């Protein structure tokens, strides 16, 4: 199944957002996520199923003004 | 002062655009700031920049004010705010909804809408706004207990573009904490904002892009303190004609 993570295409096993993030190297990282433009809390990631073509945003802390 | 939090410093400092983390660290310390602004950006599976920046910021033990910089729509700003709340573990959000790319002027219509949605969801919103009085009223109705009008466009170093407007805003909302956010270039701009009775200033580029950021941070800290003290000391009113400071009575009459 193909998802788009921060606009980049990735082929992942069908499953949850948490599983996809783990497989893509985000396990244990300080990140926040959105799925198709909607916020998904960390606690909800293991219960959030992904579908083909889903758009996932992954953000981390950075400098800001 | 801000949503029930009393701060010792009236200078809020941005963390972007410094030449290096070491320079940022020195600037933060020299500024005396107790609140620093932060943001969030995409990070890939192999990236570690966000994690190391967060550890670095946490090492100072300061309060963080995450922003929604770069957001152009209500939906984008609201989603970003939710991600920031989880990531930084704070209800505070510096809400930016940008309406114009050249001036980075706030889209005040989207700002009010986003402020209402976020306030109802438990956020403590610091809206980046203009000095418009009616917009200010709408933001307060939407739940904002702090307002952050711009001094001038972000990063422009123009200072207080509309002193009249900022003074009117202060007069209309004497009990709402007001922060001049953006556009300051030199410490005298910050002092002027504080002399108007503003509660604090928020700045970034003026310090980050100075030749010596730490020294400029110290200069801004002094200016903020001076401006605040001057406000409390009740400045005299300007007048058009001269008034001799030395008493004339008793002056020797020495002829022509």
Report what the structure shows:
The complex is a heterodimer of chains A (65) and B (256). With 65 residues, chain A is mainly beta. Chain A contains one helix and five strands. In chain A, strand 1 and strand 2 (8-11) form a beta hairpin. The radius of gyration of chain A is 11 Å and the shape is globular. Chain B has 256 residues and is of the alpha/beta class. Chain B has nine helices and eight strands. Chain B has helices spanning 21-31, 49-58, 74-88, 108-120, 133-141, 163-172, 187-195, 205-208, 213-232, and strands at residues 11-14, 35-42, 63-66, 92-95, 124-129, 148-149, 179-181, 200-203. In chain B, strand 1, helix 1 (21-31) and strand 2 form a beta-alpha-beta unit. In chain B, helix 1 (21-31) packs parallel to helix 9, helix 4 (108-120) packs parallel to helix 5 and helix 7 runs parallel beside helix 9 (213-232). Chain B is globular, with a radius of gyration of 21 Å. The termini of chain B are far apart. Chains A and B meet through strand 3 and strand 5 of A and strand 2, helix 2 and helix 3 of B.
């Amino acid at each position: 199944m193909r998802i788009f993570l921060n606009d980049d295409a990735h082929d992942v096993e069908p499953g949850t957002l948490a599983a996809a993030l783990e497989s893509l190297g985000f396990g244990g990282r300080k990140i926040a996520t959105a799925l198709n433009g909607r916020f998904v809390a960390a606690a909800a990631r293991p219960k959030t199923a992904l579908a083909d073509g889903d758009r996932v945003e992954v953000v981390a802390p950075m400098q800001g003004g | 002062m801000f949503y029930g939090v009393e701060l010792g410093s009236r200078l809020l400092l941005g963390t972007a655009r410094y030449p290096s983390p070491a320079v940022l660290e020195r600037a933060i310390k020299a500024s005396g700031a107790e609140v620093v602004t932060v943001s969030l950006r995409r990070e890939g599976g192999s990236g570690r920049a966000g994690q190391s920046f967060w550890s670095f910021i946490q090492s100072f033990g300061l309060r963080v004010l995450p922003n929604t910089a770069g957001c152009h729509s209500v939906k984008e700003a609201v989603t970003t705010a939710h991600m920031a709340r989880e990531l930084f573990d704070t209800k505070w959000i510096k809400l930016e909804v940008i309406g114009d790319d050249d001036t980075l002027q706030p889209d005040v219509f989207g700002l009010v809408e986003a402020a209402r949605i976020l306030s109802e969801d438990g956020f403590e919103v610091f809206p980046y706004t203009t000095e418009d009085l009616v917009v200010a009223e709408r933001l307060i109705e939407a739940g904002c207990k702090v307002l952050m009008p711009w001094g001038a466009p972000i990063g422009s170093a123009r200072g207080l573009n509309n002193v009249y407007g900022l003074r009117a805003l202060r007069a209309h909302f004497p009990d709402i904490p007001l922060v001049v956010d953006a556009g300051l270039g030199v410490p005298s701009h910050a002092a002027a904002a504080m002399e108007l009775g503003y509660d604090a200033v928020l700045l970034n580029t003026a310090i980050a892009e100075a030749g010596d950021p730490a020294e400029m941070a110290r200069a801004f800290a002094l200016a903020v303190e001076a401006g605040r003290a001057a406000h409390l000391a009740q400045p005299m009113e300007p007048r058009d004609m001269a008034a001799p400071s030395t008493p004339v009575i008793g002056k020797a009459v020495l002829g022509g």
